[in-house]
Amino acid sequence: MDRSIKGKDGFTLVELLIVIAIIAILAAVALPQFSQYRQKSAAASAAMSLTGCAQDLNARYADDGSTTTKTCGVGSSTATLTLNPSDGTITGIDGSYTVKGLSVTCALSNNQVECT
After folding, report:
1. Phi first, then psi: what are they for 96, rounded to 5°?
2. How far apart are CA 71 and CA 10, in angstroms?
3. Among 114, 108, 72, 110, residue whose Cα is nearest residue 90
4. What percentage of the chain carries pLDDT values higher than 70?
5. pTM of the entire structure?
6. pLDDT one-digit tens code per residue, 34-61
7. Vertex 14, ends 8 and 20: CA angle to 5°?
8. pLDDT digits over 62-80, tens only?
């Protein structure tokens, strides 16, 4: 068998190191982005839970005229919302919550729940 053909069976160590270096660079770029996506996802989940809870509290008050508080689950935390019947404002949304193992801070601004 010809020696020049026999020596071309595999990859060299340098080629393998280059591939590993490229994978490491891609991972270094992707991991911070993944963390940001997790935080945004947790914030959106908390905002959705609090908005739904506030809407439910408003609907219950409209139905029976007496329900003015509601306790809701927000991730692994809870929030107790209170409706002021005289002006329709809801308090209890502002605060910190733990969602998907991440800390999320929410506030009511312009009648919308905003979480970061």
Report:
1. -105, 140
2. 64
3. 108
4. 93
5. 0.76
6. 999 999 999 999 999 999 999 999 999 9
7. 115
8. 999 999 999 999 999 999 9
Sorted by where each begins, the domain ranges of the chain are 11-115
- For residue 55, which amino acid is it? Q
Query: How many Å apart are CA 89 and CA 68, to the nearest integer?
Result: 11
Q: Which amino acid appears at position 100 of this protein? A: K
> How far, in Å, CA of 74 to CA of 97, rounded?
7
Q: In what order do the strands lie in the sheet with 112-115?
A: 95-99, 102-109, 112-115
Kindly write down the DSSP assignment for every residue of the chain, as one continuous string.
--HHHHTTSS--HHHHHHHHHHHHHHHHHHHHHHHHHHHHHHHHHHHHHHHHHHHHHHHHHHHHS---EEEEEETTEEEEEEE-TTT--EES--EEEEETTEEEEEEEETTEEEE-
